[in-house]
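Escalated from tier 1: D-xylitol-5-phosphate holo job.
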Amino acid sequence: MSHIIAPSILAADFGNLQSEVEMVNESQAQWFHIDIMDGVFVPNISFGFPVLKQIQKHATKPLDVHLMIVNPDQFIQKFADHGTEILTVHIEACDHLHRTVQVIHAAGMKAGVALNPHTNINLLEDIIQDIDLVCLMSVNPGFGGQKFIENTYNKVKRLKKLIIDKNSKALIEIDGGVNAETAPKLLEAGADVLVAGSYVFKSENPKSTVEGLVSL
Ligand code: DX5
Ligand code: ZN
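Tier 2 regenerated the structure:
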């Protein structure tokens, strides 16, 4: 399988949301990455359902929703109703992760689990066979445009081994600081999905920036 590029809407111009979504539609990107922050799990607030509804209305590609919120369980059905294809929760925010994953699947979505930079991938040992995606945070969640944490390469390699050993189908997604320098090394280490926010949306020609990442 070739890799997937998921532009992160967090870095888009929200005053021109429709045209930003259309840019992604027309680009070679395969997914939309959508960051939901509650100001509790992370020290920032992004946007909620009214904005997601507008994204859903215009997007023609799968919505990959990354929840940086406490108690995600209460909103699972609502994200399904808003067209979410992959719903990712943070391992640090879930006391009953196995149940949360079951509920996400029962709502008809794929289930992802995100790990903060300090969280050991070994914690996934007993859930890796049940999930569709692991999102490794390569920055501390909460903000776009931060510096990539170098230890991520090593984490990707260890996670890849765990996935193979456990015969899991989970994709490895990397979120934070993806650019022309980090992307090739991440793919080499075993990443399947690259999220890119500022690198795409703040570039002069976002569509060709996406093309550059897709063709790596
Ligand atoms: C950070 C978000 C990321 C963010 C990435 O908490 O989860 O998805 O948008 O932004 P860049 O690519 O600018 O690091
Ligand atoms: Zn994200």
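The CA atoms of residues 102 and 111 lie 8 Å apart.
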